[in-house]
């Protein structure tokens, strides 16, 4: 028999864990590619990993007793997250992604200069010209 205090702890933690599942799955969906098989593999890995994390987390709280309402509260936590925070989080991820892309495109020349990429590109074209000249001379 689980004590009342442990049951309350399980109830609250399972709602929070359901919201956590929603947040992490949204982040996974945002950052993964559009390839079908890549989606399948990442979904399987995600759910296996999250199942292991959930099992260990709740095993430590309830000493191995997992009541059925735990899974219902996972779902409730996920639904609460989806209806109240999903739009906000997804909008923030898009905002951060767009601003990061803008930052990288506007600072490309500065980064290339600092890293010496411009010089490496010039060396690459020089070597291509040398190689072309050698092939022309050998004919």
SSE layout:
Elements: H1 4-31, H2 36-62, H3 69-84, H4 86-106, H5 108-115, H6 117-138
Structural commentary:
The model has no long low-confidence stretch (mean pLDDT 80). With 139 residues, the protein is mainly alpha-helical. 88% of the residues lie in helices and 0% in strands. The chain contains six helices and no strands. α1 runs parallel beside α4. The chain folds into two domains: 103 residues, no CATH class; 31 residues.
Notable traits:
139 residues; mainly alpha; 2 domains; 88% helix
Would you summarize the structure shown here?
With 139 residues, the protein is an all-alpha fold.
Question: What's the alpha carbon Rg, rounded to whole Å?
Answer: 26 Å
Number of DSSP-assigned strands: 0
Shape, per Cα inertia axes: elongated
Q: How much of the residues is beta strand, in percent?
A: under 5%
């Amino acid at each position: 028999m689980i004590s009342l205090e442990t049951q309350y702890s399980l109830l609250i933690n399972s709602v929070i864990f359901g919201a956590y599942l929603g947040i992490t799955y949204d982040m996974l969906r945002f950052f993964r590619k559009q390839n079908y098989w890549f989606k399948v593999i990442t979904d399987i890995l995600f759910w296996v990993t999250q199942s292991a994390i959930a099992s260990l987390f709740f095993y430590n709280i309830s000493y191995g007793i997992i009541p059925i309402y735990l899974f219902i509260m996972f779902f409730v936590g996920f639904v609460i997250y989806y209806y109240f925070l999903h739009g906000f989080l997804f909008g923030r991820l898009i905002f951060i992604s767009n601003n990061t892309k803008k930052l990288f495109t506007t600072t490309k020349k500065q980064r290339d200069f600092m890293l010496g990429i411009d010089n490496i590109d010039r060396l690459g074209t020089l070597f291509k010209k040398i190689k072309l000249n050698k092939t022309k001379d050998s004919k």
